[in-house]
Design goal:
three-stranded antiparallel beta sheet, elongated, 2 domains, 24% helix
Amino acid sequence: MALTFLCAGCSQAERDEAEATVKAALGERFRVAPWVVSVVRVGEQWSVTMSGPGLRALSFVAPPSGLGESIRERLAHDPPAAAPHEEPRRDIARDRHECHSCQRPFVVAYEVQVDEAQETVPIACPHCWQMNQVLVAEAAAYTQEFRAEKL
């Protein structure tokens, strides 16, 4: 995996030192799962934002000489919620339907999480453009991230 390290507001030497400090503080975490760490020098402090498996946009301020210690403390205080293999599994569903108007078949594709509830949504037939009511995953219905495809 990888570490995406973003740094601003400091010299190249400070950037190199900050990157080494962040890698040391994360330990092996960034070798087994992707992490994004942003550090910005603001006055005499570091503004830090970290995202990794089970951890989204954890932001805090660290003293100039305590960047590594601040990261270790925050990870101990706010540990990631789940390892990558424990995150909910998502699949692409491709449900076959028949248009109530033209009776031609079509597929509705959307992302679904295991055991996710379903909700009825309106969708246009890709053949005749008449509206049909179909079931899709609740999250896909909420975000409207589903599509009809011709068969």
